[in-house]
Amino acid sequence: MNTDIPVAASPARRSYFWVVTLVAVIALAGTVSLGRWQLSRAAQKEAIQAEIDAQKSLPPLEQAEFMALDDASSSALHRPVRLRGLWLAPHTVYLDNRQMHGIPGFYVLTPFAIEGSNQTVMVQRGWIQRNFTDRTQLQPVVTPSGLVEVTASIAPPPARLLELGKSEPGAPMPDGAGSSPIRQNLELEAFRTETGLPLRTDISLQQTGEASEGLQRDWPAPALGVEKHYGYAFQWFGLSALVLILYVWFQFIAPYRRSRLARRG
What we know:
Elements: H1 4-56, H2 63-68, H3 72-75, E1 80-87, E2 93-100, E3 103-114, E4 120-129, E5 148-155, E6 182-183, H4 188-195, E7 204-207, H5 226-264
Parallel strand pairs: 2-6, 4-7
Antiparallel strand pairs: 1-3, 1-5, 2-3, 3-4, 5-7
């Protein structure tokens, strides 16, 4: 009487087997593809980092070479440069909520008028710590007068931070609006219009060297997120392994154990 049960169950079992197999193959293909994509993204970011390191190791551009750059943002980003000119101290800006070694403070930016030209470039001179009692009380920064030589690296315009709501009294001004030297962000185009300076807006400079003039210069490295991509890849490949283990268990090992128990029974 029970001999008809395996025959009736066999087609359904075979259908179930192939449906599960198809789902497992799709899941494996998807997770492996996503893992490989994350690895390719990590390789791209590592190539970018290698290019940045190569640029930093080049000898500094001299002033004439820097002035001849038409599009420094693409051709010489992160390369050292040596310039001579004047600090325009009255236009110094303090970008709030910037950290160095995990401590909140300000990035100090001052326009630099290049000698023998009508060109001005914004220099991120360094970092000072915030006064936690009175945020408007700024630490003293020494700005040399007269002609000075500056060694820096070519950098993108200052990075923007997220701005929430409207400014409160005593809070930093957004985007360079108004006359407050404390700003949340600084748009070079808007600052050029505000000051009337012949300011380059495609790049800025990050001054390098030891701490001086009341400023620290341990600039954070560009956050490329290589480790993040490796972490995601590990997760996707781990999910692939889990799918494979579950497939083998439920499709082969578990049925085999059930059949053995049935035969013993």
